Amino acid sequence: MRIVIADDHALFRDSLRSLLAARDMDVVGEARTGKEAIELAWKLKPDVVLMDLMMPEMDGLEATKRLAAELPEVKVIVLTASDDESNLFEAIKSGAKGYLLKDLEADRFFSLLDGVAKGEPALTPALARKLLDEFARPKPSAREVYDPDALTDREQEVLELMVEGVTSNRKLASELGVSENTVKFHVRNILDKLHLHNRAQVVAYALRHRLVEPSVE
Questions:
Q1: DSSP state, residue 165
Q2: Nearest 5°: phi and psi at 53?
Q3: Which of 100, 135, 170 is the last residue of a domain?
Q4: Domain range spanning residue 100?
Q5: pLDDT tens across 55-102, in order?
Q6: Whether residue 129 sits in one domain with residue 36
Q7: Residue 99: enclosing H or E segment and its boundaries?
Q8: How many independent structural domains does the chain possess?
Q9: Cα separation, 14 vs 74, whole angstroms
């Protein structure tokens, strides 16, 4: 299996490369940004890209979407410390073939990685259950009308920032002067109240229904 590692932490890349090499897996390239991951995937055509989510220049979700659209034969497996459900859902919808946490035991990691070569998704039972629960939720009726008072003032602030292009938890937290966990809480509430699945859908919905007027420079 030919693998590209995409992670902005050099020490983690070194450790993962050594671990993979010990199992006779071929690490053909390493990237520290989502943009570099795409460039290496085009150049090297690996079987798998192990993709972190939080990276500079272009995050892992955006890189995953690009690779799924441009190089569908390259399998993207998200390898992250984030167990946030919204990241899991967005990664799979973006085209990732799996979602693994960095605290996974080595034997389990390699077992799931071997399954990828056979066309199996790389998901632990716990994460697979979360996905099933999410997709089993009844879809809202098209006749449902959005209640303009549904969002709190703070959630409206978060929504406005997202429409302006501030979508990462880190940047939203910085803009609002709150913790990333608080941002996650607000974003989850917005998704639930609008019956949407990811932030891209939230931005599109907000503009379409004029919940936020785009700023004009």
A1: T
A2: -90, -45
A3: 135
A4: 2-135
A5: 988 889 889 988 988 998 999 999 999 887 778 888 888 889 999 999
A6: yes
A7: strand 98-101
A8: 2
A9: 22
